Automatic annotation (TrEMBL):
Organism ancestry: Bacteria, Bacillati, Bacillota, Bacilli, Bacillales
Entries under Pfam families matching the protein: ZnuA (PF01297)
Protein's organism: Viridibacillus arvi
Annotated family: Belongs to the bacterial solute-binding protein 9 family.
Protein name from the UniProt record: Manganese transporter
PANTHER family hit by this protein: HIGH-AFFINITY ZINC UPTAKE SYSTEM PROTEIN ZNUA-RELATED, METAL-BINDING PROTEIN HI_0362-RELATED
């Protein structure tokens, strides 16, 4: 008799546990953490969010692992950035789309005329859209729309979260503009390893020079290094910046080249370009990483 009671008690405990399972929540899987952060802000704890690409990861070169594929398989919604940012994952997204899942490129809703074209081919656009706060709001709104359509019972909640967040993003935009204005006009040049900051530059009125092109896939040559060195020396620029997801080798070559020409150039600091900081830290959020970049740039160039 006692055994039977224990048996039923065990079953009750098991049943009790399973109804409280966390994984009852819809699962949203994203590529870069910038998107995961936006999903967490909009959906709060209504969904479980997983980002495939953590700190220091370069999305241009990233290939999905076996573990990623099973995460994507079990996802209810998949968000990726698009515009060929995740250049090695396009076939994966296509395959997932066949499975009747919601798969969205968040750059899809951005008007073409707001995008920066890549020279040579007008049909290719710069994928680093998160660095223009206004454009990023359009991408975030795409997340709100997609989740509201999929989970209409939370539509109002998602909209309210978006309204609060947009106010914070507007404040961030004001802060960034005010801070960049502290840099004297003749020093307002951002030199980085790869060309991730063109939207940043356009929206905040700072000239941008990348050594490596829009994707880290393209190699830089000696001529690229020489051009940047000449530019730094010619314009008396005192600092260049490294990126958390790109090797600092190229920037070191630039600094050495400038030194040979008698100009001391320092590393102004590490910026978050395509990846954000560690989860749970301020720089692991979109607003925190943006602020970090602005402060690092301004403090080195002003
Ligand atoms: Zn990039």
């Amino acid at each position: 008799m006692k055994k039977v009671v224990i048996f039923f008690a065990a079953i009750l405990i098991l049943v009790g546990c399973s109804t409280k399972k966390e994984n009852d929540k819809p699962v949203v899987v994203t590529t870069i953490s910038q998107i995961a952060d936006a999903v967490s802000v909009i959906a709060g704890d209504r969904v479980e969010v997983k980002a495939l690409m953590g700190p220091g990861v370069d999305p241009h070169l990233y290939k999905a692992t076996q573990g990623d594929l099973s995460k994507l398989e079990s996802a209810d919604v998949i968000f990726y950035s698009g515009l060929h940012l995740e250049g090695k994952m396009l076939d994966v997204f296509e395959k997932m789309q066949e499975n009747d899942k919601t798969v969205k490129a968040i750059s899809e809703s951005i008007e073409e005329e707001k995008l920066l074209g890549i020279e040579m081919d007008a049909k290719l656009y710069d994928p680093h859209v998160w660095f223009d706060i206004d454009i990023w709001k359009t991408a975030v709104h795409q997340i709100t729309d997609t989740l509201s359509e999929k989970y209409p019972e939370y539509k109002n909640e998602f909209s309210e979260n978006e309204a609060i967040y947009f106010k914070e993003l507007d404040d961030l935009s004001t802060y960034a503009k005010q801070r960049i204005d502290e840099i004297p006009l003749n020093q307002r040049v951002l030199v980085t390893a790869h060309d991730a900051f063109n939207y940043f530059g356009r929206s905040l009125n700072i000239e941008v020079r990348g050594l490596q092109g829009l994707s880290t896939e393209s190699e830089y040559g000696l001529k690229d290094v020489r051009d940047v060195v000449d530019f730094l020396v010619g314009n008396n620029i005192k600092a260049v910046f490294i990126e958390s997801s790109v090797s600092d080798k190229a920037m070191k070559a630039v600094i050495d080249g400038a030194k040979e020409k008698g100009q001391n150039v320092k590393i102004g600091g590490e910026l978050y370009s395509d990846a954000m900081g560690k989860e749970g830290t301020e720089q692991g959020t979109y607003i925190g990483m943006y602020k970090h970049n602005v402060d690092t740039i301004v403090n080195s160039l002003k």
